[in-house]
Hints:
five-stranded mixed sheet; 13 helices; 36% helix
Amino acid sequence: MRAxxxxxxxxxxxxxxxxxxVCALAVVLALLLPLARTSGGEDAGTGGGKAARxxxxxxxxxCADPEKQTLSPSGADGPTIEEIKNRQGEKRKLVVGVDxxxxxxxxxxxxxxxxxxxxxxxxxxxxxxxxxxLGDPDAVQFKAIPTNQRIPAIQEGRVDMVVRTMxxxxxxxxxxxxxxxxxxxxxxxxxxxxxxxxxYDDSLADARICTAEGSTAYSTLKQGREDGDLPGSADISRxxxxxxxCLVRLQLGxxxxxxxxxxxxASQAAQDPTxxxxxxxxxxxxxGVAMKKDADDLVRRVNQILVDYRKDTSGGWQASYDKWxxxxxxxxxxxxxxxxxxxxxxx
Length: 347
């Protein structure tokens, strides 16, 4: 009944926008169902042991530049990678937490024929990691996880890693380890074109703002209100499990604005021509691959894969950006090149 009401309210929206909105609510109702598929790879990084983890812990406590708090690259195998490689039969796959409803990042294309497969910028990276570690780009078991379950999924061992537009920040470094950054973005406001909201400024007074639970956007707004950068009358209590759910709530008139990474907001604006980005990005953030804190060899291996992925001119980072993101972010965007990595440890 609820889905029928939503479809009725969205009549008149064409193309991907309408289909994505309807699909988004369906995802909300059944988001925790795991997805199964395949992908693979070959080598891995050496572990830094207790000393490396101690250094990571100190760095997290003294964190100023979270995107730099990662281990140097290595192609060597270690205990975490050996465990992945030793899985038997159908279980010999890389288990990765991803999104299935972030347009052009990790999503099921509603316009594809037959059973829609996951595709997008993040999904391309997962296939590259699997190819390197297991020798098969399709040796992957994808698990759809909501925004607020990314860290628990890693800590509880439900996934080997999360590749899901996940911002590297100091708070998260206390719970998980990150790769070097693979994308640069920043928080931005999304609102209807007809709205008087102009960006992250006083125009957000009395606005109902939607963010995802456990997201950088929510913590940034909370801190902004404490610091006086965000009007005290702004309502930031409208949180949802998945970020795309905010777009649905915006379409239904239940909120006045959405705050999320500009890279995601641009993709959502591409889905719905009635909304647009308001103002400039007001933070600088980096996406990273998240893994368990003690998986030093896997962190190093992913960092080595990222080194090679950036250098690959035919099917690497740039090719994936051109395919998935240039249409929404621009071919000449300042973020149309991979961020340069910096590492906590050199050995």
